[in-house]
Amino acid sequence: MDIGIIGCGIGGLSAGALLAQAGHAVTIFDKFVQPEPIGSGLVIQPVGLTVLKAIGAAEYALRKGNKITHMQGQEALSGRNVLDVSYGKRFGLAIHRASLFESLFQAAQAAGVRIITETEVTKTDLIGKQRMVNGTGFDLVIDASGAGSVLSPIQRKSLKYGALWATVNWPKSALPLDQLSQKYFSAKNMIGVLPIGALPNETTAKATIFWSLPQSSFDMWRDQPLENWKAQAKNLWPGMAPFLDQITRHDDMTMAYYDHGTLKNPYAERLVHIGDSAHAASPQLGQGANMALLDAQALAWALADFPLQTALQKYAKSRSLHVRSYQLMSAVFTPMYQSDSRLLPFLRNWFFAPITRIPPAPWLLTKLVCGDFLNPIRRSK
Ligand SMILES: Cc1cc2nc3c(=O)[nH]c(=O)nc-3n(C[C@H](O)[C@H](O)[C@H](O)COP(=O)(O)OP(=O)(O)OC[C@H]3O[C@@H](n4cnc5c(N)ncnc54)[C@H](O)[C@@H]3O)c2cc1C
Predict the structure, then answer these.
(1) Can you give the C-alpha Rg of the chain in angstroms?
(2) At 34, is the pLDDT very low, low, confident or very high (cuts 50, 70, 90)?
(3) CA 373 to CA 161: how far, in whole Å?
(4) Which of 208, 276, 292, 294 lies in the 20 to 30 Å Cα band around 327?
């Protein structure tokens, strides 16, 4: 088939690479001029890594990224552990978005995917047996244009809290290099550091740092002297000082806004939605990129197994339970870490944290974070 993909992000590149490898003619459109090493680090969970391996992008990603074995969170004042998830015998791959992009981009190019930049796509009309993208007809169009997709009929709810993010050099620090470390003050403040390995053309080890902030407070944060905020953050977590000292301007931090929403039917005639355009969530569970990778794999399998329109239904069905479950868990857990509630962080500290230490809870948490708490793709033939 002739397949057009809108969005050259994580979902678009993965789907493009897999479908080109299966023999389809794939064109990806993106509005960017060229990808830039902006954005944060993220964690590719074991289920996502399986897809990277299938694409042939894992070797580069593993070389650039950094393996983490734990996710740990402490209440800032007491120093008590309230989140401690081990990957067991597996690991999460913490990686900068630019390095992940490069790994997928190389695989897509090797598979013969055509990439057209500086092209914004705002609609895809169905004309006869073709979906049109800016005047060109395709047998199938994949919307992989992310959380702000204008092609998806998804209903999104804007979340009250977002976060400020930055990438800095990993300094001389006592913080462990093999875990995501976070500190919380109630659910109002959250500060974290993730060791993410190196950027594409560098070897310097980097860290992504983040600071939870209500979306409506961003302007106020910008208007205040940077030193006030840094003093507040260092007060909560003195060990963050060598990371925060590298932030010298407000512009060094990027505000990320989060939405939540799930598309009931992620397909229409000759059109299918994958990744954030089909299901948006806060990154609290660290699953968004993995979900996009899994969607791409599920779609490629469905298109290999069934005729087009049946394949789109099968794709949706194969991902439905996994997507819905993680969306639900994201909606339930996010306010425990990012909200104005006093009750939820209290329950987190005194009810959920103790429970998570009693078997089989640690095992379940490991499965939840790894992404295979439920079968991620229920492939049917
Ligand atoms: C701060 C932050 C931290 C995160 N941390 C994690 C984490 O730890 N683990 C995890 O798994 N996930 C994480 N996520 C989520 C993850 O980044 C997303 O879920 C993932 O990028 C979704 O992939 P996608 O392909 O759907 O969209 P994207 O990767 O966002 O790609 C969309 C692409 O579409 C292009 N585009 C958009 N509109 C148009 C248009 N109209 N025409 C043409 N092109 C268009 C954009 O330029 C972009 O290149 C995080 C997200 C954020 C914001």
Answers:
(1) 21
(2) confident
(3) 26
(4) 208
Averaged pLDDT of the chain:
96
* C-alpha neighbours within 13 Å on the C-beta side of residue 334: 22
- Measure 95 CA to ligand 1 centroid, in angstroms: 14
Tokens 């990778």 map to which residue? 293
Q: How far is the CA of 91 from the centre of ligand 1 (A)?
A: 22
How far apart CA 321 and CA 374 sit, in angstroms, is 8
User: What pLDDT was estimated at residue 38?
Assistant: 63
Quickly state the pLDDT bin for 37 (edges 50, 70, 90).
low
For ligand 1, what atom is nearest to the CA of residue 7? 34
CATH H-level superfamily of 2-67+97-157+260-336: FAD/NAD(P)-binding domain (3.50.50.60)
> What CA–CA distances, in Å, run from 232 to 92, 167, 237?
30, 19, 9
Tokens of residue 111, six digits: 């598979």
- What integer pLDDT is reported at residue 299 of this predicted model? 98
Q: Which atom of ligand 1 is nearest to the CA of 14?
A: 25
pLDDT at residue 35, rounded to an integer = 74
Q: Which residues line ligand 1 (CB under 6 A)?
A: 6-12, 29-32, 40, 42-43, 120-122, 144-146, 148, 150, 165, 256, 275-277, 283, 286-290, 292
Q: What is the average pLDDT across 195-210?
A: 97
